[in-house]
Amino acid sequence: MTDPIQKLREYGYELPAAKAPVASYVPITRSGNLIYVSGQISIGEAGVVEGRLGDTMNVQQGGNAAELAILNVLSHVVYSAGIPLHEVKKILKLTVLVCSADDFTEQHLVANGASNLLVGILGDKGKHARAAFGVTSLPFGAAVEIDAVIEV
Predict the structure, then answer these.
(1) Whole-angstrom distance, CA of residue 62 vs CA of residue 150
(2) DSSP H or E segment with residue 114
(3) Within its chain, how far is the Cα of 27 from the centroid?
(4) What is the pLDDT of residues 52-97, one digit of tens each?
(5) If 0-12 CB within 10 Å is exposed, 13-18 middle and 19+ buried, where does residue 109 land?
(6) What is d(CA 3, CA 71) in angstroms, rounded to the nearest whole number?
(7) N or C: at which end does the chain have fewer Cβ atoms within 10 angstroms?
């Protein structure tokens, strides 16, 4: 299998630096071979991707925001936990929060942005269980927030 970092580059991404917590929590908790990554928002080099799906953003824009959020999850695996991406055994579970208008019902399609990127860079190890649901707001006005459980 191709190195996951090289695969990220093929998608046009570099793994970002891990973001420091902005409240009273730790970015990761490890128990045995499981890493629990705290919710990471859709933030990239240009700042927070803000918006409300079904109002100021469409599904494609939301999927792009989900990609940024999952990159921030992976950055904590590498930089906070010290686990190279090629040593990840399995992405077990994602919870995807999507800032949504009241009548928006395609959170699952927004979440595909993160899911498809994980499978693209990790192959079968990136396939996971998932919950995706809409919320009225997220920290800093972010469009998407994702937390994860990962086996290493």
Answers:
(1) 23
(2) helix 107-122
(3) 13
(4) 999 999 999 999 999 999 999 999 999 999 999 999 999 999 999 9
(5) middle
(6) 16
(7) N
Contact between residue 151 and residue 115 where contact means Cβ atoms under 8 Å apart: no
CA pair distance 133, 68, nearest whole angstrom:
18
The C-alpha atoms of residue 88 and residue 90 are separated, in whole angstroms, by 6
What's the predicted TM-score (pTM) here?
0.96
Cα separation, 110 vs 116, in Å, equals 10
The pLDDT value recorded for residue 22 is: 87
How far apart CA 86 and CA 91 sit, in angstroms, is 12
- Name the pLDDT band for 1 (thresholds 50, 70, 90): low
Instruction: Output the six-digit token pair for 23.
Output: 């409240």
CB of 76 within 8 A of CB of 37? yes
Contact present, 115 and 128 (Cβ < 8 Å): yes
Rounded to the nearest 10 degrees, how much is the dihedral formed by the CA atoms of 103, 53, 114, 21?
A: -110
Q: Quick one: which H or E segment has residue 73?
A: helix 59-75
3-state SS assignment for residue 137: coil
Bridge partners for 149 per DSSP: 36, 93
